[in-house]
Amino acid sequence: MNQASITIAPDGPLIIPASDDSIALSVVVPTFKESENIGLFLEALCDSLDPVLPGAYEIVVMDDDSPDGTLDVAAAVAASRPQVRLVKRLNKRELSTAVIRGWQLSRGQVLSTINADFQHPPALIAGLWQSIQTNDLVVASRYCKGGGVGNWSIYRRILSRGASLIGQIILPQVYNRTTDPLSGCYMFRRQAIVNVELNPLGYKSLIEILVRGRVRTIAEFPYQMRERERGASKATGARSLDYVKQLIRLRKAWNKARQ
Ligand SMILES: Nc1nc2c(ncn2[C@@H]2O[C@H](COP(=O)(O)OP(=O)(O)OP(=O)(O)O)[C@@H](O)[C@H]2O)c(=O)[nH]1
Ligand SMILES: [Mg+2]
């Protein structure tokens, strides 16, 4: 078995270069303290993609230097699954920029992201792959017909709806384009963001792509969000403040681009 190597993420602007590689799809899996999930998750993701894209996809685990050995567990899978690549980012802990840094190091003509905690079913990526054939971007949505949030508490539902409402007020141009702009699982053509500087803040990355990227057609793919069964959520209260700051920043960018 090969020893899987770990790439250290570079610093610098978040700009995605063009790729002339023949890899069809790159899936970035952001991780922080997911040692209990990442092994099983990578196996499940590979098993669902192997029949659809044999030898034509890569999975980039983008870890923010987790202290619980997440990358060691991922490395054990990568040793027998060469399509799994490992990246460690030092000195930064932020979901949105981790995902984009992962794409910067990816080679695929189509880019995507999914969480490692099984709240998104791993087989979703294979489903999105079917829809991306005729669209620029596909959102895995909890809020379109057939989607759902499972047993979320009423508190969690109100928070989520509140966040959508604020977004609808500040960035209606984007929030009217999809039922789930805060989704953490989606797929799009690399061409949509090549050489565009991205500058997100906090947890959400899809709204960044929808404002700054070149996305003409959007499809939705319903899914039922699951409960986290292992490991802990990293969500904190600070996330709400970052979200509002990001919305304001994006609204300014939107206005500037259309002056
Ligand atoms: N690289 C990186 N990944 C992160 C960070 N925070 C969370 N993640 C990963 O992003 C995914 C989603 O994180 P969660 O903490 O489950 O957030 P969430 O799913 O929005 O919130 P919950 O519904 O409460 O679980 C998981 O794969 C995490 O390991 C971070 O700071 N850096
Ligand atoms: Mg989660």
Uncertain regions spanning at least 5 consecutive residues: none
Task: Estimate percent helicity.
Answer: 25-40%
N/C terminus separation: 56 Å
Could you say what the CATH architecture is?
A: Alpha-Beta Complex
CATH H level, superfamily name: Spore Coat Polysaccharide Biosynthesis Protein SpsA, Chain A
Give the topology, please:
Elements: E1 6-8, E2 14-15, E3 25-31, H1 38-49, E4 57-63, H2 70-78, E5 84-88, H3 95-104, E6 110-113, H4 124-132, E7 137-141, H5 154-170, H6 172-175, E8 186-189, E9 197-198, H7 206-212, E10 218-222, H8 238-257
Parallel strand pairs: 1-5, 3-4, 3-6, 4-5, 7-10
Antiparallel strand pairs: 2-9, 6-8, 7-8
Helix pairs in contact: 1-2, 5-8, 7-8
Bound molecules: guanosine-5'-triphosphate (GTP) and magnesium ion.
Provide structural commentary:
Helix content is 34%, strand content 17%. It contains 8 helices and 10 strands. Helix 7 runs parallel beside helix 8 (238-257). The chain starts with 5 loop residues before the first strand and ends with a helix. With 259 residues, it is an alpha/beta fold. It has an 8-stranded mixed β-sheet with strand order 1-5-4-3-6-8-7-10. The radius of gyration is 17 Å and the shape is globular. The mean pLDDT is 95. It has helices at residues 38-49, 70-78, 95-104, 124-132, 154-170, 172-175, 206-212, 238-257; strands at 6-8, 14-15, 25-31, 57-63, 84-88, 110-113, 137-141, 186-189, 197-198, 218-222. It has one domain (6-257): Spore Coat Polysaccharide Biosynthesis Protein SpsA, Chain A (Alpha-Beta Complex). The chain binds guanosine-5'-triphosphate and magnesium ion.
